[in-house]
Amino acid sequence: MPPDDEASLSQTVARRQRASRRKAVFEMNETLEVIMGRRSVRQYRPEQVTEEELQQILDAALHAPTARNQQKWHFTVVQDRGMLARMVGIIRQNVMDSGIDFFIERASDPDYNTFYGAPTAILISGDDGAPLVKIDCAAAAENIALAAESLGIGSCVMASPGFLFASGEGNELRGELGIPRGYSHVCTVALGYMDGEKPPAPPRDRDVINYVR
């Protein structure tokens, strides 16, 4: 084989080997698998997540990025079933009084449960004086959801639990929930073992991406 052809063949083989390695890395990358495998779970088994799993999930939340590393967030872990039931009752009433048709339709369901029966709900609140805290809390919520997925635990990130604080009765729970003064609810993550099969991933629209190169 002429030297030029041999060099060209060698380069082709090297390119194919690099492509094969890249493909293998992508296929075996556990982080990407967790991200792609996460779903919003709306059906849970009654048994509680373990304390070890819960602490691992909370550690993941605390490692989310925050603006200037201020960490002006607070996490309220609710596992008391009586408290969860009280919260659902108040949220439902406040939703019915909200005048928002979409939420009213959901709350009118006799089986309505804000947290879909999840045995754990993590309320994430942020300091009202931190201008970027909603982004920080959203990043923490995503870390919670991804950590949960990696442990075989279902999750659902939601904002509707904020209706809890739309009435005086709900705001009276702030002390019992341990929410610091001057902090407001940003979002909540429901956690628990999924009941049933994992739902399929909805199609993603890649037309929302553009490149400036």
**Which blocks of ≥5 consecutive residues have pLDDT under 50?**
none
- Oligomeric description of these chains: single chain
Range of strand content: 5-15%
Rg on CA atoms, Å: 23 Å
Helix/strand/pairing category: alpha+beta
In CATH terms, what is the fold-level topology of the largest domain? NADH Oxidase
- Tell me the strand order in the biggest sheet: 1-2-4-3
Q: What name goes with the CATH superfamily of the largest domain?
A: NADH Oxidase
The CATH architecture of the largest domain is 3-Layer(aba) Sandwich
Count all strands and give the number.
Answer: 4
Task: Just give the CATH class of the largest domain.
Answer: Alpha Beta
Description:
This protein is of the alpha+beta class. It has 2 domains: 3-34; 51-192, NADH Oxidase. The protein contains 8 helices and 4 strands; from the N terminus they run H-H-H-E-H-H-E-H-E-H-H-E. A 4-stranded antiparallel beta sheet has the order 1-2-4-3. Helix 3 (51-62) runs antiparallel to helix 6 (133-150). The two termini are 40 Å apart. The relative contact order is 0.19. The model has no long low-confidence stretch (mean pLDDT 92).
List the helices and strands and how they pair.
Elements: H1 3-28, H2 30-37, H3 51-62, E1 73-78, H4 81-96, H5 101-107, E2 120-127, H6 133-150, E3 154-158, H7 168-171, H8 174-177, E4 183-192
Antiparallel strand pairs: 1-2, 2-4, 3-4
Q: Could you name the key traits of this structure?
A:
8 helices; 4 strands; alpha+beta; 2 domains; 4-stranded antiparallel sheet; NADH Oxidase; 213 residues; 14% strand; elongated
